[in-house]
Amino acid sequence: MTAEQVTKMRTLLAPFFLRRLKSEVCHHLPAKTEVITRCDLTAQQRDVYHQIGTLARGHHYSRCSL
Q: Which of 27, 45, 51, 56 is the least crowded, having the fewest Cβ atoms under 10 Å away?
């Protein structure tokens, strides 16, 4: 696809894409609030979590040449 075709496609599609921020649309909304709630993992969740960590570390180390 050429640069000209990309530009034409963007021009044609632009009216169909709404890319606006919340602050541009609704000024009276309060700021976003994030709440982090900690909870314990079940035994099965903990096992899966550790398995993924082990696999990720093994993958990382296999890509490193020491």
A: 27
- Alpha-carbon span 41 to 57, nearest angstrom: 21
Inter-residue contact 13 to 21 (CB < 8 Å):
no
Domain residue spans of the chain: 42-66
pLDDT along the chain (66 residues), means of 10: 90 83 75 92 95 83 56
SS3 (DSSP) at 18 = coil
Q: Contact at 8 Å (CB) between 33 and 41? A: no
What local confidence, expressed as pLDDT, does residue 65 receive?
Answer: 53
Alpha helices in 14-64 (DSSP H): 22-25, 43-63
User: Tokens in use for 17?
Assistant: 């894409």
